[in-house]
Design brief:
- By secondary structure, the protein is an alpha/beta fold.
- The protein has 3 domains: 71 residues, SH3 type barrels; 56 residues, no CATH class; 281 residues, Alpha-Beta Barrel (TIM Barrel).
- The chain has 15 helices and 15 strands.
- It has an 8-stranded parallel barrel, surrounded by 5 helices. It has a 5-stranded antiparallel beta sheet with strand order 3-2-1-4-5.
- Helix 3 packs across helix 10 and helix 5 runs parallel beside helix 6.
- The longest helix has 25 residues.
Length: 432
């Protein structure tokens, strides 16, 4: 299975390449001086992953051509807006969205007041239409390897917090690279997220070795390793990592300080900004449903995410884990996440919005509903099954007993049913 469609480089402007697949042109960052006009390439997150021989690329494109345009028709039909059901305030907002005008905080807050089933369905339709207009039917699919469940932090919401008595594991460099190699060689992944708790057993040199080895497989290396030092992130960028996922969790300073003892929101935001300056493709976001959270807090979270100008939004529901300070908190309803997804799409039409496994843990149908409410990115957990269940960041995680080929089939079937194609060649921020 191919998780990206090859494209031809038709123009090079300094370090930016213009690529073409089936007549659609996008900009990508050329992270390799050897690439020239006429080459065929894979891209993820708006950045070059690797070149591909012309003969192989043309064979893949021939296979995809008919499927690609069939999927586009399905996506277009599912992203139409039934304007006869629009409430007056939503009509005003839609008009602003169509004119590509920025929505105010007050307008975004008014959308959170929508509660009626018909109103919410229209909100989701508008968001899905904006997603389709901005991204076409492209959806990125990343693999994720959860390589260590050890953590030095004691975040109140996390099931692998330092003080929790659980069975833990660490994958060796060899195990990580073998897992990545299987995902690339057997299943065709083009981007892999390396995720762990904040585990300092992995020194800079160990992490550099892992990144270099995985990058040599010809994939985009995406880091999700928490608040490591800026010098560490610089070393890993030099080693070949090009993307980083690090949430700020909440824009509420008081809540942040309480829920992440010994850390500050200011330091977290400073690190996120520095990752952008280093050159990382950035994914960031927040948790929905933290104690005493208001709809205004969620709006502030969306606005802070937009301000940080990430390439991907990542937010999910609080799912209380046993043995944590928040274990007695109520599980939020999926509708709040769907509403947040739709409003985030309207606040930032060009964003990539990830469907998290936490959302699918809330409800097996929630992934599909989120994709129809403005989301356009997914991750497939490729961690070995025997270890997935030990990465217990929250309870009853979806898919922890599902073998990889079944997870892939479930995800790709879902995307195809919605008319989505695993094309991830979207423009990176600042290069449009």
């Amino acid at each position: 299975m191919c998780y990206s469609i090859p494209a031809k480089v038709v123009e090079i402007k300094n370090h930016i390449g213009v690529i073409d697949y089936f007549g659609e042109k996008r900009n990508i960052l050329l992270d390799d001086d050897r690439v020239k006009t006429g080459d065929y390439v894979y891209a993820q997150g708006g950045i070059l992953v690797r070149t591909i021989p012309e003969k192989e690329a043309l064979e893949i494109l021939e296979t995809w051509k008919e499927i690609f345009f069939e999927l586009k028709k399905v996506d277009e039909s599912l992203s139409k807006i039934k304007t006869d059901k629009l409430p007056e305030n939503a009509m005003h907002i839609l008009q602003k969205v169509n004119l590509r005008k920025t929505l105010t905080k007050k307008e975004l807050a008014s959308l959170f007041e929508l509660d009626h089933k018909n109103e919410l369905s229209v909100l989701y339709e508008i968001a899905n239409n904006v997603r389709q207009r901005s991204h076409g039917n492209a959806s990125c699919v990343h693999g994720i390897i959860e390589f260590s469940s050890y953590c030095q932090q004691n975040c109140f919401y996390c099931g692998i917090r330092k003080d929790k008595n659980i069975e833990r594991y660490r994958m060796t460099c060899k195990e990580i690279v073998e897992t990545a190699g299987n995902a690339v060689d057997k299943y065709g992944f083009k981007a892999l997220v390396l995720q762990s708790g904040e585990d300092y057993w992995y020194s800079d040199s160990k992490l550099e070795e892992i990144v270099k080895s995985v990058r040599q497989l010809g994939v985009l290396v995406f880091l999700s390793i928490g608040s490591r030092s800026i010098s560490t992130y610089k070393k890993l960028y030099a080693a070949g990592a090009r993307a980083a996922l690090i949430r700020f969790e909440t824009s509420n300073k008081a809540s942040f300080s309480k829920l992440r003892p010994g850390t500050t929101l200011q330091d977290r935001i400073a690190l996120i900004k520095e990752l952008k300056r280093i050159g990382y493709i950035l994914a960031t976001g927040f948790i929905v449903g933290l104690p005493e959270e208001t709809s205004q807090d969620i709006i502030n979270n969306i606005m802070l995410t937009k301000y940080l100008a990430p390439d991907m939004y990542s937010f999910g529901p609080l799912i209380p884990a046993n043995g944590t300070p928040l274990e007695k908190e109520a599980i939020i309803k999926k509708e709040l996440i769907l509403k947040t997804t739709a409003i985030a799409r309207l606040a930032d039409s060009n964003s990539n919005i990830l469907v998290t496994t936490a959302l699918e843990t809330l409800d097996l149908s929630a992934g599909k509903e989120a994709l129809l409410a403005g989301a356009n990115s997914m991750m497939i957990n490729i961690t070995p099954v025997k270890l997935k269940k030990l990465y217990s960041i929250y309870d009853n995680r979806a898919g922890i007993n599902t073998v990889l080929h079944k997870s892939i089939k479930q995800t790709t079937d879902l995307l195809y049913n919605l008319g989505r194609a695993p094309v991830d060649t979207g423009d990176i921020r600042g290069l449009k």
